[in-house]
Amino acid sequence: MRSGVFVKQVSGYQAFIPKPLPPDPQVQIDADMAHLLSEADRAVGRLDGITSILPNPDLFVGMYVRQEAALSSQIEGTQSTLEDVLRFEIDGGGDVVPKDVSEVVNYVHAMNYGLERLEKLPLSLRLIREIHAELLRDTRGSNRQPGQFRERRTGLAQPAAT
Q1: Collapsed DSSP state (helix, strand, coil) of residue 146
Q2: Are the C-beta atoms of 72 and 108 separated by less than 8 Å?
Q3: Contacts with 32 (C-beta within 8 Å, 6 or more apart), sequence order
Q4: Residue 9's pLDDT is what?
Q5: Full DSSP string of 1-36
Q6: Which of 36, 45, 64, 84 lies most in the core, judged by the most C-beta atoms within 10 Å?
Q7: Residue 33 and residue 52: Cα distance in Å, rounded?
Q8: Nearest CA among 49, 4, 7 for reference residue 161
Q9: CA atoms within 13 A on the CB side of 82
């Protein structure tokens, strides 16, 4: 694999080890690559332009974080939509909060918590453990060692070594 390799660890997991930068051989910018870079540059420029006219760009980013939380949680089988999350946040959840919604709300909270902690801590294993603990707080995974790294393999498939 051009970007790195998977190396089997003593614990049985495989760790992805990226190749050093700059890449060797160097990236060749042909006409197709130049076109893609130009499209990406234009898209970032449009996004920058839109955020400059928004009354509160944080609202825009907040919606994106909530949508990403809902979509990422759906990958893991959680049945909650952006609309469900917004309804919960507006209504305060009422007496009963569906577990799926609370998991997505925790995802949003953990993301915001991590961003706040980055002002005081470097990106580190400690920070990842803290964010993980926030993510699993009062959810179905709260009994699965929140804030700790796994020490044994689960039945999940591991990426193949290349």
Answers
A1: coil
A2: no
A3: none
A4: 84
A5: -TTEEEEE-TTS-EEEEEPPSSPSSPPP--HHHHHH
A6: 84
A7: 29
A8: 7
A9: 8
Altogether, the residues listed in the chain come to a count of: 162
CA distance 134 to 114: 9
Q: Which stretches of the chain drop beneath a pLDDT of 70?
A: 93-97, 141-142, 151-162
Cis peptide before 25 (omega within 30 of 0): yes
Instruction: Tokens for 8, please give them.
Output: 């089997």
- Residue 143: what residue type? N
Amino acid sitting at position 124: S
Sequence-distant (6+) residues with CB within 8 A of 134 are 106, 109, 110, 113, 114
The per-residue pLDDT for 162 is 45
Would you state the pLDDT for residue 154?
60
pLDDT for the residue 72: 87
φ/ψ (deg, to 5) at 13: -75, 165
Amino acid at 133: A
Exposed / middle / buried, residue 103 (Cβ in 10 Å: 0-12, 13-18, 19+): buried
